[in-house]
Amino acid sequence: MTLPAQAEPAWPARALRLVVPFPAGSSPDLVARVIAEPLAAALGQPVVVENRAGAGGNIGTGLVAKAAPDGHTLLFTIQGPLVTAPLLNRQLPYDPVRELAPVSLVATSPNVLVVSPQLGAASLADFVRIARARRGALNYGSVGNGSASHLAMESFKARAGLALAHVPFQGFPQIVNAMLAGEVQAAFMVPGIAMGQVRAGKLTALGVTTLGRSSALPELPTFVELGYPGFEAVSWQAVLAPAGTPGPIVQRLSAELVRIIKSPEVRSRMLAQYFSAAGTAPEALAQLMKTERERWARVIQAAGVKPE
């Protein structure tokens, strides 16, 4: 006797959660909200952005890693929780390779080194001179251990021979507040958060971390131009799902995201936040995670960054 074939349950059957493991107003939160509305329209269900900040993004990332793999819970994150957290956190509550399924790379952005105007540094050379003169007395902010903002500064500290104390925060808005309050003096930040403060004269931008000048910030010199050959630290953002999410759902999500990300409207909205739209197949994101992990492992070793 042959049993009738069971039909696959319709997907999506309800609203999707797009978990951002950083606070509202952070760069991943802003970009997640750019794609949430068109993704909801494409799928015929609401896409609710949910901020679950903490531990440099590891709390929200772990939440998605343990979620039901039914296509209704997704992760929108920067590279830190995916690439460098496993290298720097011995108690990481998830394995990004084993417990998360790549869906698509969404956007990339340079980092900008910004400093407090009270520091009196009008150039990168000024900052290095002041930091050396005040060795051990200056603090820098980052969005968590293993984030691009953390490792970019650790890499630069090693290159320039600086001693700066690391102060982690939940997100870039908190770093801005701390810089304005005089609690930290410097940070590598994504320009979507930093440049509004720079334009207002509240922070000073010294350079960008791309190898060539950024099309979004052509007025800012690169660290390569300023005497640090090969210095690069690009931030990127991506969508992932819990491992075990059915392949057809992952492929559908990826296809819809690529179409949305490459649309002129979304590309324009991302560029307004200093992000370059990407949009890739799951396999390309998986390869990026692998190559980035290998690259930053070398940086961590060279800079002497210690695991927590």
Please tell me the overall pLDDT. 93
Series of H and E elements:
EHEHEHHEEHEHEHEHEEHHEH
Low-confidence stretches: 1-7
CATH topology of the largest domain: D-Maltodextrin-Binding Protein, domain 2
Give a quick account of the main beta sheet: strands, pairing sense, barrel closure. Answer: 6 strands, mixed
**Largest sheet: spatial strand order:** 2-1-3-10-4-11
CA-atom Rg in angstroms: 20 Å
Number of helices: 11
Structural class based on helices, strands and sheet pairing: alpha/beta
From the N-terminal CA to the C-terminal CA, the straight-line distance is 59 Å
The total strand number stands at 11
Tally of individual domains: 2
Estimated helix fraction? 40-55%
Proportion of residues in β-strands: 15-25%
- Shape category: globular
CATH architectural label of the largest domain: 3-Layer(aba) Sandwich
> Going by CATH, what is the homologous superfamily of the largest domain?
Bordetella uptake gene, domain 1
Give the C-level CATH assignment of the largest domain: Alpha Beta
Q: What would you note in describing this structure?
A:
With 308 residues, the protein is of the alpha/beta class. The chain is built from 11 helices and 11 strands. The chain folds into 2 domains: 164 residues, D-Maltodextrin-Binding Protein, domain 2 (3-Layer(aba) Sandwich), CATH 3.40.190; 97 residues, D-Maltodextrin-Binding Protein, domain 2. The protein has a 6-stranded mixed sheet, sandwiched between helices. It has a 5-stranded mixed sheet with strand order 7-6-8-5-9, with helices on both faces. The N terminus is likely disordered.
